[in-house]
Structures are given as structure tokens and as C-alpha cells.
Amino acid sequence: MVTARRVADLVADRPALESAIRTTLDAEEPFTFDDLAIDSGAFGEIVGAGIVEEVNDGYRVADREAVERGLAGNVEQETEDSQGWSLPRPDRRVAGALAGALALVAVFRIAFAFGPVFQDGTVVLSANDPYYYRYWVEQLLATPDLTLSTLPGGVTQGEPLYVATMWLLASLVGGGAGATGQILAWYPVVSAVLSGLLVYLLTKRVTDDTRVALAAVVFLAVLPGHAMRTSLGFADHHAFDYPWLGVTALSLVTLVVNDVRSRATTLGVVGLALGVGGQVLAWSAGPLLIVPIGIIAAGLAVVWVRAGKSPLVSGAPILAGLLGGAGLVWLGHTTFDWHTTVVATAPALLFAGTAVVFVVTEVVARVRPDPRLAGGAVVASGVASLVGAIMLFPDGWETLRTRASRLLFRSDRIAETAGLFSDAQGWLLLLGFALFLALPALVWATVQATTEDRWLVPVGYGWAFLLLAMVQVRFVGELATFVAIFAGVAFVALVERVDAVRPPVPDVRDSIALPTRQQAGAIVAVFLLVGGLGVLQVPIKTNQLTTPPERYATADWMADQTAQAEWEEQPEYVFSQWSYNRAYNYFVNGDSRSYGYARSNFEPFLTSNESQAWYDRLSGRAGFVVFPTSYTEEPSPESIGARLAAYGSQTDGGDGLAHYQAVYESSTDQYRVYTLVPGATLTGTAEANETVTASVSVTGEGFETTYERTVQTNGVGEYSVTVPYAGTYTVGETTVQVSESAVEDGEAVSV
Questions:
Q1: What is the pLDDT of residue 745?
Q2: Distance CA 89, CA 510 (A)
Q3: Which residues contact 319 (CB under 8 A, 6 or more apart)?
Q4: What is the full DSSP assignment across 618-653?
Q5: Which pLDDT value is given to residue 185?
Q6: What integer pLDDT is reported at residue 93 of this predicted model?
Q7: How far is the C-alpha of 268 from the C-alpha of 494, rounded, in Å?
Q8: Is there a contact between 212 and 493 (Cβ–Cβ < 8 Å)?
Q9: How far apart are alpha carbons 332 and 272 in whole angstroms?
Q10: Helix (H, G, I), strand (E, B) or coil at 662
Q11: Could you tell me which residues come within 8 angstroms of residue 130 by beta carbon, excluding any fewer than 6 positions away?
């Protein structure tokens, strides 16, 4: 919004612009640049100041009365608010394009997950870990004695701010399991849209180009690694981290590009404090997410020395924001016992290290303002600070080192612990060709950052998260934020080369022009070339997380069984693959705190041939065993897994199972449920040392099969064999009826 004071200040700073402004006032509207007898630089400054704005057929003066009063020096009527706090009048075309880009972000998070998340009137969250947070939010709502400070250590030292926020939101909409499910299901989508808005603001602030900012949001929409982690129903903690990261990065850029005395700087300080505090309180590994700030601060100090600026003066707002963030984290630690002391002091250490860097480079700037000397001083001070921290706080350093090593270099089979390039196609499936497009722009921006300090923020974050994602893809969502920015930069440069968009008027990038049909076709074609793979991969990656209807139907069936009166005294724990264990147990018994037992024992159970020993271990603990019929390991014929695949019948080399009764099978045979039973023991006589076969037709929920096993008689012709199914057995030439009670009570049945 142009004001008289802004016009007056501009003319006071640039008297030569007054005649150019008067030329625009005298021109017939709408006018084009070619209609005016002024140079492009002056026109660019006028448009950049908001004095002239773009319309459909050219340009017009934004507020003729305000411009005339400004030229006349009549600014007394203007209030304090009109000089900085009022929002500029948005360009309708830009606002519409931004709304469309953000809608695209939301659509790619909702469209492919809506059906699997909302099944039969129930909120079915995606994947496994979200049920951990769902459990604790519901416990906070249902248990008056449970508060934010009395949560167990796994929560208070894990993701306390995330759990607390979800609890607060669920409380505001009525509480209860239904409210919790809805809040957890929709929050990732809200996070994605907020992240998209922050990407737009950050890109616009760095590049000063609306087209690049819009392109960055569109790329964020179709980056599979980000879309899957912010998809509807995937209520893991990752999506909660992304807006805090965006706020932090935007605040840093604001502090870099604005004068330290401006009001925007005040907002930047507050934003940086909130961003740093939020990132650390949200996740125990949050300190890793703020490490790039230290790298960025070091780079800024060197660039400021090169530019003849004072690192201490220019960096004071950053120090203020870091100090505020450290205070917020320490307040959460001391008030609610959130996080360990090591994690809680990480922002304070970052503040101290950044202060040391700024002080050292300030000394260099005053003694000998050489950027190479400043760079060497930064490295030396960084090493000295690290050594000093290790010597002064050896226990804390060892704890921090151990936790970082455990987080970054785990050798388990969890998918998110793999590196971005550990699989030849992994990066391609998570980031598409956008990464290929973004990397050259990142290198270009790195060069720009040596002289233009605003580029240091996205550059520092981009390289840092690229390195972290190369170690573990759990950081690919954070990386995607900056891949989107640099992909947007490269994309606009690319479509400019093929004349799909017009270059902006010099220094005027606050508006966009509607492309012709031919230009629109070229833009879409280029986008599909570089972003099409992401468009295809988003639904694939999202569907890898969502809960298939068959899996939910299996859990729902088990829940119905436990609701029966005859199940009252039986265990309700579901023993299954660890990657689905929390989801099963949430729906069956409501306890989805841990998958530790399943993770440690389910695969050894399937590969073992000691079926009786495992029955003894599981009996009284597990109510159900869910066997995945698509079990991919190559089971030996005598393994429990091979025999479960045969409904408990004997296999080549493997005796039949005596205590595992198949009771349910999903509609396409992917999931089969077993219960543990004592089994009925068939006893009889036949010829000595003869093989006797016992078989029975079995009908369960969703399947029909034949259970069969053989037994060898002893030297006097006696045999006994335990079977898990009721029914009419054929034993040799004889039939015998086995009742349900005989199977449930472990009775002997004479043949």
C-alpha cells in the first residue's frame, strides 16, 4: 500500500525520481513502460515502491491522491500505523495464484489418503507410530491425574510439545477419542499448507520474485518425501516440525535483510525465538534442526566483514532471537520436565557459540577487515568453542555424542534410517527430478551467498539437510522445503529460456502476468518434465503409509471378538509384525504404547521350529497372532512361519502345529489371524510303528481348509496327537468328533 510518507521519503532519498513519478501521473491509464519517457531503472523503482501497480492491460498509479500529497510534502495526516504496520494491498492475481498453489498442496495430501483414513465412520491413521501419540493424547484427555509434567519419560523426553499441542487442540473441540482422531488426521494437512505459505514468504523474501515463490510452493506440493509425511492421517511428529523450521528460516532472512532498527526486525526476533524453541521442544532430536543456524551465522559474519558491516551490530537481532529460544526451551524443561538437560541446553550453547563467532569477527573487522582472515577466525573460534565445551561438560558431550550416533547411525531395518542415496533410486522416488533441478541452483546460490547475505539462509539449510538426509531419509521432509525453493529458482530460469514467461520489468517482481495459451502449454510441459515423476510418486508413497481396508477389517474383527463375553478372561494383546503392531493393538485393546515385544520376537517366532516353546511363551500373553500371508522371508519347511502358511498342517520336514488355531482370514487372504489354544489330544491304537494320519475340514471366518498331520505309533501300537481345531476328524479308517470345549480345555479324546 503506497502512502504519502513513502512517496515523500523516496523522493527525499532519490530526488531524480520526482520527475519520473510526475510522468506517470500525467500518463493516460492504463499505460505501458514504452508509453513513458523514463528509463527502466527509474520505472522499476517506482513500481517496486508500490506507486505504480500492474493491471490487466498495463500499469496504473496505485493511489493518485497519496502520491500527489507525497510529492507536495503533505504527510501530516498519516498515522503511525500507515507507515509500516498496515498490510500492503495484495495483488489479486498473485493472491489467487498463491491460493491455487496452496490448494494444490492440500489436494496432494488429501486425495490419496481420504478413503483409507476414514473407514466405516472410524478414523484409521496411517502407518504405525501415529498410534503412539494417539494413545497418549487420549490418556491425557481421559486421565485427570495425568498432566504435561507427569507424562512418562518416553513422552517428555521424546516429542512433548507435539503431544501437548494435539491434546490442547483435541480439548478445544470436545475431547474424546473421536476428536483426537480428527485432530491427528487433519493436522498434517494443516502443517503442509502452513509450510507452503512459509516457503512462499521465504522464497519471496530471498529472491524478491513472485514467480519463483509460487513455483516453489507448487514444487513443494509434488515432492513425494514431503507429501507422504504430511499426508492426511500420517500423524507422526515429522509434520509438526516443518512449520517451526519455516518460521525459523523466514525469521532469519527477515533479520538479515532488514535494518536492525526496523519493526520487521522485532517480528524477526520473536519469530526466531519461537522457531528455535518450538523445534527443540517438539522433538528430542530438535537440536540437529537448529545446528544449521550456527553455520549460517558463521557465514553471515564473514560476508558482513567483506561488506564493511559490524558483525555484532548486524548480528545482535539474531543473538536476541537465539537467547529467547534458549529461554523458552529452558522454561519448558524446568516447568514441565521436558527433555533432558543436555537437549534443553542445546539452544543456549548455540547462542554462546554464535556470540563467540560474532565477537571474534567483530575484532577482525576492527583490526583488519579481511574476509579471508575472518573466515579463518570463524573456523578457529568454532574449534576452540567445541573443544572448550567438551572439556567443561564432558558428561553432557558424551551423552550428546551417543544420542546423535544412535539416531544417525542405527543399523536396524526401519525404512527411515536408510540414507537418501543408499538405494540407487531412493532419492528419485522421494524427491523426483526436482532434486536434479535444485542442485545446480543450490550451487549457484552458494556462490551468490558470498556477497549477498540473504542467500546464506536457504543455502546453509539446504546443504545441512542434504547431508543429514544422505545419512537418514527421516530428514527428507526438512530437505524438501529447500529443494522446493531452489527448484523454483531453476524452473523460472528454465522457462524464461524457452520464452514461456516474460522477464520481469527490472527490479519489479511483485506481480505476475497471465501467460498466453502457447506459453501456458510450454510451462506445463516443462513442469511435467521436471516434476511429473513427483506427481506420479506422491500417491504411491502415500499409499505405502495408509492402512489398507483389509488390515483395518482384520483389526476390527479381533476387536469384535474381545467384546464377546466369553473373551473376558483371555488376553487381548495382538502379536504381529512390529510395523503394524501399534495399529492392531490400538483397535483391539486400546494400548498402543509400544511395539518393542513384537519387534524383538515376531520374526524369531516365525523362523523358529520350536512351536511348543513359543506356545508356552505366548500363552497367557497374546490373544491373537496375525500372520501376514505375504511373508517375504524364505521360511524353512519346519519353521513355524511355513506351518502357519499351511493353516497349521504339517509340511515337508515340519510337524503340524498343535496350539495355533486359524480363526480369520481377510478377503484377499493377506492377513490371517490365529488364536492360541491348549488343543485336544487324540489317543488311540493301531499297528505297531505305523504312520497314522489325522485330518479335519476347517471353516473359519473368511476361509475353508483342511488341517492334517501324521503321528507314528509306538512299539505296542499306541499313539497320541494334539490338534487345535474342533470338528469331525478322520483318523485312519475311523472318525471321531472333537468338541470346542475339548480344544479349549485341553481334553483327551479317545479314537
A1: 94
A2: 11
A3: 351, 354, 355, 358
A4: HTTTEEEEEEETT--S---TTSHHHHHHTTT--BTT
A5: 97
A6: 83
A7: 33
A8: no
A9: 17
A10: strand
A11: 184, 233, 234, 235, 236
CA distance 389 to 316: 23
Q: Is 490 exposed, middle or buried (0-12, 13-18, 19+ CB in 10 A)?
A: buried
At 13 the pLDDT is 67
| Three-state DSSP class for residue 122 | strand
DSSP 63: -
CA distance 697 to 275: 64
For 615, phi then psi, to 5°, come to -65, -40
> Tell me, what amino acid is at 269?
V
Find the angle CA(496)-CA(501)-CA(506) to the nearest 5 degrees. Answer: 80
Provide DSSP, 559-575.
HHHHTSGGGTTS--EEE
Q: Which three cell numbers stand for residue 278?
A: 518450538
pLDDT for the residue 75: 61
Q: Give the largest CA-CA distance in the chain.
A: 122
Contacts of 186 (CB under 8 A, 6+ apart): 232
Strand partners for 626: 673
Secondary element (H or E) of residue 101: helix 92-110
pLDDT of 94-148, one tens digit each? 889 999 999 999 999 999 999 999 999 999 999 999 999 999 999 999 988 888 8
Residue 38 grid coordinates: 523514463
Rounded Cα–Cα distance for residues 240 and 477 (Å): 11
Torsion sign across C-alpha atoms 7, 59, 41, 251: positive
State the Cα–Cα distance between residues 27 and 52, nearest whole angstrom.
12
Per DSSP, the three-state class of 332 is: helix
For the chain, how far is it from start to end, CA to CA, in angstroms?
95
- Does residue 30 have a cis peptide bond before it, meaning omega lies within 30 degrees of 0? yes
- Own/partner pairs for 173-181, CB < 8 Å, 24+ apart? 175/141, 176/141, 177/138, 178/123, 180/134, 180/137, 180/138, 180/141, 181/122, 181/123, 181/125, 181/134
Q: Which three three-digit cell numbers place residue 677?
A: 489354544
Which amino acid, residue 242?
Answer: Y
Q: Which three cell numbers stand for residue 321?
A: 532471537
Closest CA to 281 of 401, 187, 406, 162: 162
Give how far the C-alpha of residue 518 lies from the chain's centroid of Cα atoms, to the nearest Å: 37
Radius of gyration in angstroms for the set of CA atoms belonging to the chain, rounded to a whole number: 33
Confidence at residue 366, expressed as pLDDT on a 0 to 100 scale: 81
Handedness of CA 285, 289, 291, 294 (dihedral sign): negative
Question: For all residues of the chain together, what is the average pLDDT?
Answer: 88
Strands 680-685 and 748-750, how do they pair?
parallel
User: In angstroms, rounded to a whole number, what is the distance separating the alpha carbons of residues 342 and 352?
Assistant: 15
Residues near 239 by Cβ (< 8 Å), separated by ≥ 6?
A: 187, 188, 191, 192, 229, 230, 477
Q: Kindly give the residue spans of alpha helices, DSSP state H, lying in 258-345.
A: 263-282, 286-306, 311-336, 341-344
SS3 711: strand
**b/e burial code for range 74-113 (CB count within 10 A of at least 16 → b):** ebeebeeebeeeeeeeebebbeebbeebbebbbebbbebb
Instruction: Report the pLDDT value the prediction gives residue 507, as an integer from 0 to 100.
Output: 41
Ranges of the chain whose pLDDT falls below 70: 1-2, 13, 41, 75-90, 385, 389-390, 392-393, 395-414, 424-425, 499-511, 513, 632-635
One-letter amino acid identity for 416? Answer: E
Residue pair 134/587 in contact (Cβ under 8 Å)? The answer is no
DSSP state of 500: S
